[in-house]
Design a protein that fits this description.
The relative contact order is 0.10. Helices cover 21% and strands 37% of the residues. It is built from eight helices and 23 strands.
Length: 396
């Protein structure tokens, strides 16, 4: 448009202006968009011919929540300022009419890059973002349009029910309002949940980082992994099954979920429910252990018990046990709980749990090493005193 106006000025100036000598003549330009520009003819010193190309802004919508959207706008070099219009209604009309509406109805005007939250929005609503830049002559030089839909409130989309909470498990039912919605449920300690919020501002960002890491470790694309992590329909399970391990007694947890498509687009905000596990019930099982034989890869033991309550038999290197004690400030229960969590995470806990008398071999993969045989009652938590019997494995 700028080039068209200037060419017209050149023609008109040549045919009209040179024939006028008075100072009371005005040359007025009226554009197709019905805007006008007037100049006094004897004030015109020269005409400058330029051309331009309408550019696009580098404009990203970086985060979407229920009532706000985070935008990041980079300013093109040839634009001295730009207008931002945010509207729940899409603008209609010609390109020129849309430019005019942006200038008339803009919400924000900027002369520098802009990174900020657009707040006060309505949940589950599509918003249209229009950015129009102008150059030093006031001529439009760049324009971009984006759209984004705010998230629906999860309280309207999910019902989370937690019941029968014990020291290491409980019952869980997650019911989405829309049975066809794909969603992601998870459970973490409240301490870990707060850490996720502090580091990433929300659990969705934290989970995205976790999914990306998993995908990289598995050598697949995130879009290939994500569908395997999502659920549809009503979920009836246990807290232990969702976590993939026993819960820790007397610990606060958060179960959360949110809608997300297999492509990774979030469709609701996170919804959470908190609970606290109970203390592990103390066992009166009197566990007596004798090491009968020592090998390079384990020991033969004899275990005598007074009840059928479950207990753990596990070998750790003395170095690992002392490190756990140091981290737990010599609290044996905390140190043993940490080892149980590690065993549970790597799938070795079930093979370390026994009930009743036992006579047999407890294996280890550490030859010629100072070790400890750990023995303690366990039912989702430590239920008896902890025995740590030291020995040294034979060389191979």
């Amino acid at each position: 448009m700028k080039k068209t106006i200037l060419l017209f000025m050149a023609s008109f100036f040549a045919t009209v202006v040179f024939g006028q000598t008075g100072s009371n003549e005005i040359l007025k330009f009226i554009t197709k968009e019905k805007t006008s520009k007037a100049v006094i003819l004897d004030q015109v010193k020269d005409l400058k011919f330029t051309s331009f190309k309408m550019e696009e802004f580098t404009f990203d919508i970086t985060e979407v929540q229920t009532d706000k959207i985070l935008i990041d706008v980079a300013q093109p070099e040839n634009c001295v300022k730009y207008y931002i219009l945010i509207s729940p209604e899409e603008l209609t009309g010609t390109e020129g009419e849309i430019r005019k509406k942006i200038i008339e109805q803009y919400n924000i005007v900027q002369t520098a890059p802009y990174y900020a939250w657009i707040q006060g929005l309505t949940e589950a609503t599509t918003y249209y973002f229009y950015v129009l830049g102008v150059d030093s002559d006031g001529i439009p030089c760049a324009m971009t349009k984006k759209e984004a839909k705010t998230l629906a409130k999860a309280t309207d989309e999910f019902k989370i029910e937690i019941s029968n909470v014990a020291s290491a498990d409980g019952s869980l039912v997650v019911t989405p309002k829309d049975a066809s919605m794909t969603y992601y449920p998870f459970i973490v300690t409240k301490e870990d949940y707060n850490t996720m919020i502090q580091r990433y501002t929300n659990v969705q960002k934290a989970d995205t980082e976790y999914w990306t890491y998993l995908a990289e470790q598995m050598g697949v694309e995130l879009k290939e992994l994500l569908p395997n992590l999502l659920r549809t329909g009503k979920l009836e399970t246990t807290l232990k099954e969702l976590k993939g391990a026993d819960l820790t007694p007397e610990t606060e947890y958060v179960v959360y979920c949110y809608g997300v498509t297999p492509e990774g687009t979030f469709t609701t905000e996170p919804y959470m429910e908190e609970f606290k596990t109970t203390a592990a019930e103390v066992s009166n099982n009197n566990i007596q252990v004798t090491i009968d034989n020592v090998y390079h890869d384990g020991v033969d033991v004899t275990v005598k018990t007074t009840t059928a309550d479950k207990y753990v038999l596990n070998i750790q290197s003395k170095r690992v046990w002392e490190r756990e004690l140091q981290n737990a400030e010599d609290d044996k229960v905390k140190a043993a709980t940490s080892i149980v969590s590690t065993l549970s995470f790597y799938g070795g806990l079930e093979s370390s749990i026994f009930s009743g008398d036992f006579k047999g071999k407890v294996p280890t993969g550490q030859s010629d090493t100072d070790c400890v045989l750990l023995v303690f009652g366990y039912d989702g938590g430590i239920t008896t005193d902890i025995q740590a019997i030291e020995f040294h494995t034979n060389p191979e």
